[in-house]
Amino acid sequence: MINDNHVSNRKANPDTMASARPAAEPPALRRSDSDLKKDARLIAAAAHAAVPSWANMVLISSLILGGCCANVFALEAIIKEQATAGPLITFAQFVICAVFTLPNFLSLSAGPSAFFLSPRAIPLRSWMIYTAFFVTVNLLNNWAFAYKISVPLHIILRSAGPVASMIIGYIFNGRKYSQGQILSVAMLTIGVVAAAIADAQTKGHSVQVTSESAMITTAIGFTILALAMILSAFQGIYADRLYATYGRDHWKEALFYSHALSLPLFVTSYPQLSAQWRTIVSSPSLLTKIPHTVTSSETVLSMVTAGIQNHRPTQAFLGQLPVQVAYLVMNALTQYLCIRGVHLLSAKSSSLTVTVVLNVRKLVSLLLSIYLFGNHLANGVLIGAALVFIGGGLYGFEGARLRNKAIRNDQPTGGVGKPALKQQ
């Protein structure tokens, strides 16, 4: 009410309004308040921009290190009991990934003719070719476990991907490589060969069969993984051509279509998948794997065990859930988290960062596999693993150095530098 009277008096009496002006807020003070508000907005904007950035890095690190390492744990828990479950593991991973990425592409306005999917940035035919590479590589990688390839050795051999990529790139794309890249790939090759020979020799002496039989079985497993690496290199070349044509901002589309289009291909494997599923369902319940005695120490495991014992519905559920089914679901979910974290990291970081993080993840997975499952690796395998990880790090470092050099060379010409393609 006072404010209304004041405004009406100022309107009715100009003299009063003029006399009231000295009591008004000085212009300098008003500008100062404005500046303070502007500074506050800038600080808030900076904080808003910084917090999500740190949150994203924490999320990405959690997805890769937590998701991928937990994925390897669940994978080995299944393989230890059923080495031939590779196709079922692959199918479960593809179903989960397709279902979780589907909401990003659902569009009712697209109509039934487009299966209610939003328009694609890359043609469907291109995704079908990419999917053929993708599903074959994944099936071969998981199939190798049926030929006595241990999870630690599997991690080491798959880390040699740059070897196949360099050879295929040189033969089919005419790419040139620096001395640093050649040196790093030579280290990778020596490391893989050393690990493979040491592992084969160890199996020849430890398995109660003829050494020749063990060597043949191991050789088949190595051949399957080598074929998977070669096809993966071709997949990478094809993906680079797609991204060079349509841009590299379509990783979600790649994630969805590469998994969704793969699912119909499993129809021919239904008898095999059904048999593997029956075996997994017949495993003991998850409750049998949980300790029945609670220790006095206040560890996370003891608190979880106490909580389960005091909660009858949880006990009933875990008593009906086969342990291998729980591991299968865990493996599929963590695979989605892992691959999503890798794609997010590729979109937000340099290829060097991606290479280093993935090598750290593989090393952590290897150490966890040795510690949790009692895997004992021969000295030759350990030396080979060290060469593989060091060579992989050097390869990523050299690739980042060459890209930065190319960008610096492009800048003086006045042209717009072409952004580096990130390795996924």
TrEMBL record:
It holds the Pfam family UAA. Residues 18-27 have a biased composition (Low complexity). InterPro entries: EmrE-like, SCL35B1-4/HUT1. This is UAA transporter. The keyword Membrane applies. The chain crosses the membrane at residues 58-79, 85-106, 127-145, 151-171, 183-202, 214-234, 321-339, 377-397. The lineage of its organism: Eukaryota, Fungi, Dikarya, Ascomycota, Pezizomycotina. Residues 1-33 are annotated as: Disordered. One of its GO terms (molecular function) is UDP-N-acetylglucosamine transmembrane transporter activity. It is a multi-pass membrane protein. Keywords: Endoplasmic reticulum, Membrane, Sugar transport, Transmembrane, Transmembrane helix, Transport. It is found in: Endoplasmic reticulum membrane. GO terms for cellular component: endoplasmic reticulum membrane; Golgi membrane. The keyword Transmembrane applies. It comes from the Eukaryota.
